[in-house]
Amino acid sequence: MSETQSREAVVDGDEQATERIEDLRAQVDLLRSENERLRNEYARARQASYRRTALGLGVVGAVAVAGGLLFPAAREVLFVLGAIGIFGAVLTRYLTPERFVAAETGERIYAAQADSLGDLTGQLGLEPTWVYVPVEGDPPARLFVPQHSEYEIPDEAALERPLVVGDRDAERGASFVPTGGTLFREFERSLTGSLGNEPGTVAEQVADALVEGFELAQTAEVATDGDAGRVTVSVTGSVYADAEAVDNPLGSLLAVALTEALGQPVRLETTRSDDDLVLNCRWDVDESEDETDGTRGAVETDGEAPDS
Which UniProt keywords apply (predicted)? Predict the structure, then answer.
């Protein structure tokens, strides 16, 4: 092959490569535009669903009001139904969310944070123990990861710093803002009443919020053993299903809520059972109070007068 032919072959190859690159760029631009279009259509479809619901409620309310005008005997009931329908239509129409975040997006964002925390705790040689400690302020708890298996809870001032160097070796570890901390405030605002005082009540409230409120899970079953200081929530269809990740958001919310209700540290363990994500929360039970109650009951029984 002559030098001229070689040069022409190189030029042809460069031109083909350039054309290939241009084709790939065009395909990337096309895919980007298509993804943007699909996202916009998805958002419009979700918003249209809310608007149709609002329209339906408005129609029901208007029909009820018209019926109240036509039928005086049932006017009071129909007017009440009409008011409910119209009020519901207004709320649904104007409280329609303008932006929807896909579950996969939130999961990937959390995965990056969990990987970073996992690498950090691993390099620091910390124990795989997650202890949620009540503190003053917002959020109402800090996540303490101890350096030793036999640990002590440091004071609140020490927990304000990421690296905890306590007065004693058993207090050393790391302290983080839990993912369930800020989520807890949204959870608290969503409650129809106040946060429960008993662990079982709190766990039921959290389970209901995970499924019905935040839609982070499909189902959630609660099992409570107050005497043993344990609450277990089995979750199916979880958005954040990684049981080995540091500070799983679902378990973190449960632990923070229990910490706030009990006013004492709560330990979190997350495991997998078949397709379920199992959230185990434990806390120390004050055995002295149980013994005192038992002694008091025995004294009262001994003090009763015998039957004649």
Answer: Coiled coil, Membrane, Transmembrane, Transmembrane helix
